[in-house]
Automatic annotation (TrEMBL):
PANTHER family (UniProt xref): FIBRONECTIN TYPE III-LIKE DOMAIN-CONTAINING PROTEIN, SUGAR HYDROLASE-RELATED
Biological source species: Serilophus lunatus
Pfam families reported in the protein's UniProt record: Glyco_hydro_3_C (PF01915)
Protein name: XYL2 arabinofuranosidase
Gene3D superfamilies: Glycoside hydrolase family 3 C-terminal domain, Glycoside hydrolase, family 3, N-terminal domain
Length: 228
């Protein structure tokens, strides 16, 4: 609210938020937050004690239902350790979620799905700034997994036994410097070309909106070159 100039101080923000029914804050930290101004707002009479209790009650009710105040022996999550992180079960579930979330807009001449048994006899070209850069594959507010668990399009196809050639064309999603020659060379020698384009947090994120939906930089040119 302060950042959007709806209020001028954290104290005003605390009063406005509580009166509007808000009871959670994504704070800036313990030294710079809104909720620490609530006692002053209460002392000044801008909010009432009953209002404060009404805001706090659902928070603790939810935490109780989640078992946060139960003895550890009653909480099944207390028995978990770091061995569950990136466990085969979780990785398989992530793979299943990824496969089921694909959106296929058009499938000309039944090109997809690619069959693993046919890949070894084909020469694939994987091109684009998202083809083999693990750092750009995650969106805003995404976790930062261990690099060994990140499968780029290039790495994924290579694990299937495909004969893969690679050319980024441009090293970053902004694609301000584009190497057309390497894309044309790699794509021209391939039986099939996989083009990996997009935006990523370098281009758009919270607080960094875009004015259009065009591909960044020279990415459209990269796509046209790969198609030709």
């Amino acid at each position: 609210m302060l950042g959007h100039h709806y209020t001028h101080t954290f104290l005003e923000t605390a009063v406005a938020s509580l009166n509007a029914g808000c009871n959670l804050e994504l704070s800036y930290g313990m030294r710079n937050n809104v909720f620490m101004h609530i006692p002053k707002a209460l002392a000044m009479g801008n909010i009432t004690l009953q209002m404060l209790r009404d805001r706090v009650r659902p928070l603790f009710y939810t935490r109780m239902r989640l078992g946060e105040f139960d003895p550890p022996s009653m909480n099944p999550y207390s028995a978990l350790d770091l061995s569950v992180v990136q466990s085969p079960e979780h990785r398989n579930l992530s793979l299943e979620a990824a496969v089921k979330s694909f959106v296929l807009l058009k499938n000309i001449q039944g090109t997809l799905p690619l069959r693993a048994r046919d890949l070894s006899s084909q020469h694939l070209a994987v091109v684009g700034p998202f083809a083999d850069n693990p750092q750009v594959l995650f969106g805003d507010y995404a976790p930062v997994p261990e690099p060994q668990y990140i499968y780029t399009p290039r790495r994924g196809l290579e694990t299937l036994g495909a004969n893969v050639s690679f050319a980024a064309g441009c090293s970053k999603p902004r694609c301000q410097q584009y190497s057309r020659a390497e894309v044309v060379r790699v794509a021209g020698a391939a039986d099939m070309v996989v083009v990996c384009l997009g935006t990523g947090v370098d281009v758009e994120t919270e607080g960094r909106d875009r004015s259009d939906l065009s591909l960044p930089g020279h990415q459209l040119k990269l796509l046209q070159d790969a198609v030709q």
